[in-house]
């Protein structure tokens, strides 16, 4: 009984609740009906705005696509320029490294050449000193002879000992007089100590032909050669190694004066002993420099 009453009360309450809901819905429906015109107008306006917004969006999207395309083109151009710059930079770095390597090589070559130049300068200085020392020793050894008969001078890195015919020979003779032998002996003493000196004996005459029928001679060539050979023998006899001595005749073809006066002819009738220090070291340096320059 209690249960049935409770159920009835609940049903009544539910009915009332449903009635209230229906009434509320009806009220809302009336309100909706009243607002339908306004809502329709608002909806239409909203749709128009939506359409306008859609059109604007489409336009903006198109413009954005074009802008993006332009930006992409700009980016690609910048990227290409950057790649080109990087390539140019790489080439410049390669060229710079190559130039640095060339400079290093040139500096190394310059140092080698400077060292060779210093070596050559030292060799030339040593050679000049040797020639000066040789001239001084020869001059001191031959001080007792008159300047008109014997002269010692330097020329082209060599020492020239010029001996007059009057000191060495009688006219037309190839035999050295005693006074000439004395001079040659003193010269030989100096040359014995100067083992790195080569000796060239040159015979010279004036332009007067030799007498016809002179034994063993046809002309001044023969006379100059025979006199030079005789002096070379005397130097060798007095201790100068024969392999260091060369004898040659120049006849009348290398005069020191014109053959126009007796005094000038006497000057041309002479024997020149040319002393040349060996230049093996200097030649080696020159050959080394030449070989290096051809590389």
TrEMBL record:
Keywords: Coiled coil, Membrane. SUPFAM superfamilies: OmpA-like. Gene3D superfamilies: OmpA-like domain. Residues 82-137 form a coiled coil. The keyword Coiled coil applies. One of its GO terms (cellular component) is membrane. Residues 156-279 form the OmpA-like domain. InterPro entries: Bact_OuterMem_StrucFunc (IPR050330), OmpA-like (IPR006665), OmpA-like_sf (IPR036737). PANTHER family: LIPOPROTEIN YIAD-RELATED (PTHR30329:SF21), STATOR ELEMENT OF FLAGELLAR MOTOR COMPLEX (PTHR30329). This is OmpA family protein. It comes from Hymenobacter lutimineralis.
């Amino acid at each position: 009984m209690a249960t049935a009453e409770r159920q009835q009360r609940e049903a009544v309450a539910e009915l009332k609740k449903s009635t209230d809901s229906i009434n509320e819905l009806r009220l809302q429906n009336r309100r909706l009906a009243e607002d339908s015109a306004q809502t329709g107008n608002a909806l239409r306006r909203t749709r128009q705005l939506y359409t306008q917004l859609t059109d604007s969006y489409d336009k903006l999207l198109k413009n954005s696509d074009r802008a993006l395309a332009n930006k992409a083109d700009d980016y690609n151009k910048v990227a290409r320029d950057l790649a080109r710059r990087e390539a140019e930079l790489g080439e410049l770095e390669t060229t710079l490294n190559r130039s640095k390597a060339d400079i290093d090589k040139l500096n190394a070559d310059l140092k080698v050449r400077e060292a060779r130049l210093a070596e050559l300068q030292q060799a030339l200085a040593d050679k000049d000193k040797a020639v000066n020392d040789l001239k001084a020793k020869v001059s001191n050894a031959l001080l007792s002879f008159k300047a008109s008969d014997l002269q010692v001078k330097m020329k082209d890195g060599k020492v020239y000992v010029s001996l007059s015919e009057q000191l060495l020979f009688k006219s037309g003779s190839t035999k050295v007089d005693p006074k000439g032998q004395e001079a040659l002996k003193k010269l030989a003493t100096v040359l014995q100590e100067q083992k790195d000196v080569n000796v060239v004996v040159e015979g010279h005459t004036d332009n007067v032909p030799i007498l016809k029928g002179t034994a063993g001679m046809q002309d001044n060539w023969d006379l100059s050669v025979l006199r030079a050979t005789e002096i070379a023998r005397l130097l060798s006899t007095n201790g100068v190694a024969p392999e260091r001595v060369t004898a040659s005749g120049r006849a009348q073809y290398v005069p020191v004066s014109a053959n126009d006066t007796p005094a000038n002819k006497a000057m041309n009738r002479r024997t020149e002993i040319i002393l040349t220090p060996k230049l093996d070291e200097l030649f080696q340096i020159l050959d080394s420099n030449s070989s290096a320059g051809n590389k």
